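EI: anyone free to look at a 284-residue chain?
SC: sure, send it
EI:
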Amino acid sequence: MKKVLLLLLGFLLLPACGQTAPEPAAQPPRRVVCLYASYADLWLKAGGTLVGVTDDAISERALPVGGAKSVGTLLRPNLESIAALDPDLVIATPDIAAQLALKENLARLGVATAYDTADTFAQYTRLAERFLALTGRSDLREPLIDAPTAQVEAVRAQTRGKAQPTVLLLRANSSGVNVKSEGTIAGEILRDLGAVNLADKTPSLLETLSLEVIAQENPQFILVAPQGITEADAQIVIRELKAQNPVWGQLEGRWVVLQKELFHYKPNERWGEAYETLANLIYA
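SC: here you go
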């Protein structure tokens, strides 16, 4: 079984530019541990099952993981807890240092690993293709890939050639806000739809949130993506910002708090909805 999965892993780590779709797995992995809730969600929707997940999949996302055991937190997965489940595949993200650090130890244990990033729609579709190939559930391609692809392409067509709106994208957490660009769901969609993100135009904002620069650029929209807080909490953060500095108040009427389900977590099969949501906001 482990040899079969190591061969399957070879497909998972192939460059994404391959022209032909892989054959479905003859023997899908049965004991899968996922260290990232958004990928666990996609794996389940691709017809897979799980024996282990990180706490966020259970406590924060309430995913239907059945009897899957906790193997630690998103930022601190526990190697011993993972090994105790005798997994044949561990799904993780290379974007979290503690997860990437497990790779060599899992390899020594003979456990196949699949590390992937899905910050753009193209990356998501490749990941969904890989999961469907592993589970052998090609019948689920329509809801997971074909339908959102049609939605995304329709939105792209509707916004093509329109005047480019200027946007300030912020991420709000319990400590305040910071400016964001690529590597975020909203940032990647804004770029794909032709919007001008101030962080792309003025990269220094990523390091220092300059109200002088923001006031000078005068963005048409200020989009706020919650991280680790609720959408209601993000509204409180915004009110506190406005109270602290009158410059923020001068931008009244431009603030929009984005849905956490679409713009903090990976939207998975709802990527089309995420595209439509942003397009309706900035191109209305």
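EI: Residues 3-23 have pLDDT under 50 and may be disordered.
SC: 👍
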